[in-house]
Structures are given as C-alpha cells and as structure tokens.
Design goal:
The chain has 328 residues and is an alpha/beta fold. 33% of the residues lie in helices and 20% in strands. α1 (11-21) runs parallel beside α2 and α3 (69-79) runs parallel beside α7 (259-283). The structure holds iron/sulfur cluster.
Length: 328
C-alpha cells in the first residue's frame, strides 16, 4: 500500500511531515500540497521551508493546483447563469438576503480546489491510472491526515453519504410512496490514517488502532513539539486569504502582522460583492449581498473581537471537511 501525506501546511500536517523527517513516523511515499493560489505569503514561505526540511530527509513535496480560487470566484460570480463557467467556485460567504434574512453560500471550494486535485494526484501519480481507468477494489493508498484530538470529529472513513430514494409502497392517490435514506458510498481503494489520533479508518467504516507516534496529540501538543524541535519557527494557519471561516483572532493577526495581505482580503471582499451585483443585475434580480465576515459589513470596518477565537457559525461546515485540507 502506498502512503500519501495530505499536507495543508498548517500546524498539524506540518508536524506529521516533520515527524516523518525525524524518523518518528514512517516516511510517506508521497507528500502532496494542493494550492488554491490565494494563500497568505507566510504560508508559501513556510511551504518552501518545509520543502527544504523534507529534502534533507529524502522526501519530496508535490504541489497540485486546478487554478486560482480568487480569479475563478470572481469570474463565477459575474458569469453564473450563462452556463459558461468551468468551475463551481463557491466560497461560503455570509449573505444578507433582500428579505432581511441572513444565510451562507454553499461551500464547494474545498472540493473543487483541493479534494479534486488531490484525488487526481492519487489516481494518476500514486496509482498510475490512466484517465477513465478503474481504481483498485481493495485499499491501495493510505492517506495520512493531520487531524488532532481537539478536532477529532473531522476524522471520517474514506467515502461519503449519498441520499437515495426508496419506493416503499403506494400512497392514497395510487402513486409511489418514497422515502429518502442515506447510503454509504465507500472509496474502496483508500484507507485514511490519522496518526495524531492513533487510528486508521477503512472503507467499510471500521476503525483500527494505528499507534505510530505513541499517544494521542492535540494541536497544543503539536505546537509544543514544534517549539522544542524547531525553536523560533512559527507555523501559520493554512487557509485562503479570503476564507470566511477565519476567526476574529485570525483576522486581527493578519491585519497586524501582514497589512498587505489584509489589504488584499479587503479588496477581494469588495470585488466579490461587485461581481455578484453585476452577475445578478444582468440576470434581472438581486438575490443577496455576500460578505467575507459574519457581521456582514465590509471587512475594513469590522470591529473584530480579539476574544473570539472560534469560527462562529461554521462549525458544522468544517465538520464536512474531513480531509485535513483547510486550516490544518
Ligand atoms: S480555506 Fe476556506 S476558502 Fe479556501 S478552500 Fe478552504 S474553505 Fe474554501
């Protein structure tokens, strides 16, 4: 079985890579980073440092990308409805609806910009499959994911729940009575390994022990290990500059430590509203106004609360992102 480390370049996945470099975790056959082309410069600088450290241990980090999430998100907002957008670049913006209600846009960005690129990498580079060729029916790729104990709920087996309709009889009018049910769709060729949780999860949803680093680690344990082994090195939070999942504490950190990147986020926050306005106006209706921050005011006038370290309002959405791709 080939082992592939999914590198998000945040604290947890960086810890896994560096543990492997030190021989404290079995060396992965491949390491892959999926680039949305809109991460803060500190993430790219950290990635370059990781590449150097990995190279010393004979490990190569491969970068895959499907394009720029920034450019595509704006293009998607302007052109949506014309049917000529190639990628569904939907970021989970907060939306002020015209009827006074508030909502959130569907999140497709992790799937489109990270998971699909990684999936293609697994199939083509790791398994050597040609386009259209079937993947093996048995586990052939062990995917190492940096989820720590404090985010344990994000660890999921390889597969997804699909919604299916089942006919269960006739209704009063002679039509079919159907009920919806969730059906597990396994990814047969994958095993997901969570070294910080000491477990592996299998396509049939079974869970087995995989104690390779001696104990269960929290994010704080990772930070402590990094400080001890790489004194002075700060590992940034890995997420797109425009990500609405950032907590207030993370926005404040960006504004204070990297004003240029914060200015880029402010500019994008305006651009995306203009793009949605143009797209909606062309289609003859205004559906709602998107914002990057949950208070639904332009980013530069948000009164961030330094005590708000949690990403309020999006916990359930992060739960759906089990691949250790965003924020880890
Ligand atoms: S970091 Fe945020 S914006 Fe970027 S892909 Fe993940 S959820 Fe989407």
């Amino acid at each position: 079985m080939k082992t592939v480390l999914s590198l998000g370049a945040g604290v947890q996945s960086s810890t896994l890579l560096l543990l492997a470099c030190r021989g404290e975790l079995p060396k992965p056959d491949h390491v892959v980073f999926s680039d949305t082309q809109f991460e803060p410069p500190e993430v790219y600088a950290h990635l370059e440092w990781l590449k150097d450290e990995a190279a010393k241990a004979g490990i190569t980090i491969d970068t895959v990308t499907v394009g720029s999430i920034k450019r595509d998100a704006i293009d998607f907002a302007r052109r949506r409805g014309r049917g000529d957008v190639s990628r569904y670049a939907s970021i989970p913006f907060y939306v002020a609806n015209n009827d006074g209600t508030q909502g959130m846009m569907p999140r497709q960005c992790t799937k489109e910009y990270k998971l699909e690129a990684i999936d293609k990498y697994h199939r083509r580079t790791v398994l050597g499959l040609k386009p259209g060729q079937r993947a093996p029916k048995e586990p052939a790729v062990r995917v190492l994911i940096g989820i720590s104990d404090d985010e344990r709920h994000r660890a999921k087996p390889p597969g997804w729940w699909a919604s299916e309709q089942e006919e269960i009889g006739e209704n009063l009018f002679g039509g079919a009575m159907v009920r919806k049910r969730k059906v597990w769709k396994p990814v047969h060729w994958q095993v997901r390994a969570y070294p910080l949780l000491n477990v592996e999860m299998w396509p049939d949803q079974s869970v087995t022990d995989w104690d390779v680093i001696g104990g269960i680690w929290t994010r704080a344990d990772c930070v402590k290990w990094l400080e001890k082994n790489f004194p002075g090195r700060k590992v940034p939070k890995s997420a797109c500059i425009c990500c609405p999942y950032r907590s207030d504490a993370e926005w404040i950190h960006m504004r204070e430590t990297d004003p240029e990147t914060f200015a880029e986020a402010v500019s994008f926050d305006h651009e995306i509203r203009e793009a949605y306005r143009d797209g909606q106006a062309r289609r003859g209706f205004l559906a709602g106004v998107p914002y990057t921050h949950r208070t639904m005011v332009p980013l530069e006038v948000v009164e961030f609360d330094p005590n708000r370290t949690k990403r309020k309002g999006c916990g359930a959405l992060w739960d759906e992102e089990p691949d250790g791709m965003c924020g880890l």
